[in-house]
## 1
Amino acid sequence: MKLFADQLAAVVLDATVAETAAVIRAGWPELPRAAIVLGTGLGSLAEHIAIEAEWSYRDLPHFARSTADGHRGRLLAGRLAGVPILAMDGRFHAYEGYSFSQITFPIRVFAEFGVSFLILSNASGGLNPTLRSGDILLIDDHINLMGVFGSSLPAESREPMADSRNTVFPASVLRPLYDARLRNLSVKLAAEENSIPLRRGTYIAMLGPNYETRAEYRWLRTLGDVVGMSTVPEVLAAGELGLPVVAFSMVTNVFRPDDAQQTTSDEVIHAAANAEPNLRRVVTRLLIECDTNSPLAPHPTPLP
Ligand code: HPA
């Protein structure tokens, strides 16, 4: 009975993904090479996309709505540096009340289009004291403290480890969730682009929506380099779908144990916008390089 419910949920999910993809295809009959998720304050990157079609999330079936500050809530189809892409201008967060399957639904749609890889971006708070506001950090790995775990299936039909659709465990063990080839390429391209400094490290995901207390920052510092409230659900879903991911974090504020200042969302959005040109250069080079040299085969089918 339970197995039947799971299978039914999976069939329904596949049908909703196909329905959304059909709406996008009807307005934009191209094959996107990659998909990009623009996080907090990074919406200005969208101004550099030659937009050929766009949809408010409100007009896309089964998409949630963006409610967070600094997230516009539209899907863009077009070209960045001539490369056909789909881009989310604004993402969904668990703190907005969305479930894992709602947050990651767009990732399933991107996979349906057969994109070769996914580029994620976010804003984060720096924990590592050598970080500066405006730094770009390439995420090597994460620690998930969101209380939101990997399954694209609705929570009510989830039975961890019961079948492969319900778990990302096999994929993450067999290969890193953050694609090693894309990470190495990003480091090389950032160095070539007038030596854009690219930091690397571990991203810790908290549920939010509040920024951390001083005690939490101190504790999190022992675990990783930056802290944010997103990205991990999308990465888990991409792992489940066999879609290579690269993720960049814009450090918008750095925790200083001796400084009593509070982080505000305006400060975070402003700092992310200032650092956007460097991130845009790295992302653009990555797209051009992957388009020209095709280092990535189309994404493999999910593991059995
Ligand atoms: N904490 C959590 N998320 C964030 C922060 C932070 O300090 N800065 C930007 N996003």
## 2
Amino acid sequence: MTSIATLGSHCALQLLKGAKDEGFKTLLICEKKRQKLYERFKFIDELVLVDAFSEVIDERCDSILQKNNSILIPHGTLIAQMSSEQIESIKTPIFGNKNILRWESDRNLKQKLMDEANLPTPKSVSSPSAINGLVIAKRHGAAGGKGYFLASSEDEYNKKRDQLIKEGMIKGDSDLYLQEYTSGVLAYLQFFYSPLKKELEFFGVDKRHESNIEGLARIPAENQLKMEKFTSFNVIANSPLVLRESLLDEVYTMGENFVNASEKHVPPGMNGPFCIEGVYDENAQFSAFEFSARIVAGTNIFMNGSPYTTLIFDEPISMGRRIAKEIKEAELNNQLKDVTT
Ligand code: ATP
């Protein structure tokens, strides 16, 4: 019998609760410092204690996961803390397509896939000297917005870059990606693509509360101007959104285009959960600045389902439980190979 495992962070609670509700044994790769937290939750059957998550590729973890016939569910912490090479070397079967995670981590590959999917994106800015308007400077990988800053000129960019170097967050220009800043309503569109049913499900929408950019809006301009502090987009929390119904058709089209492009360029394609992240401008035009090719933490809001899952399923369902259902069906039909890599 298959079991379900994940790393103890990000959306682990949602994933393992969903797995337990579907009758799976659950395992958590847990950093020793978080043991006390995760022991509180009775739906976690086994904690595999580690000093660091990178131990998931070591023989000890590997043999525990193998003994339990585990499928590992990837999330943002795996991407943030391990290189693409390390992730690809994990022997335990990974739910979805582990090869697409490299495309999420590399800004150039990421842009390529978004272009192939015909997603409108903010323009990238080739170098600091090409800054001509407001840009956002982002670190590579899933840095969760920490240390991202805004600049309107090369001088301003240089000053802020130097500060990040001083703080040890980056080494130089090559660690930063520059993109035009788009202003509007931010929306993070959550999807699940079932490789078994070959169907796309729109799961929900969230917005992120990012510090300190959100707090800055509460400070009058005259006080902001006197502040020395730089902006940062560190995600602290998420809250739910519901879109105007007239926007839904385009949401499905964007999701389907993304699934089709992934199938063509990163076989076996975008199986399982993913998220398209962007901004609606004043004409309700969406511009995607990012995708996540795996479950996002914004799905934690909908542990009991979202307004959109209510339209598809007759029971409350989280993304974690949806994943477990797909694995269960695959196991019943001898198709586990179709839902893992
Ligand atoms: P994660 O992996 O956690 O999604 P990330 O490190 O890949 O984060 P982004 O999602 O690209 O980074 O950006 C972080 C935040 O910066 C976004 O949530 C958004 O608030 C802001 N942001 C990024 N790009 C743009 C843009 N082009 N215009 C306006 N805001 C942006």
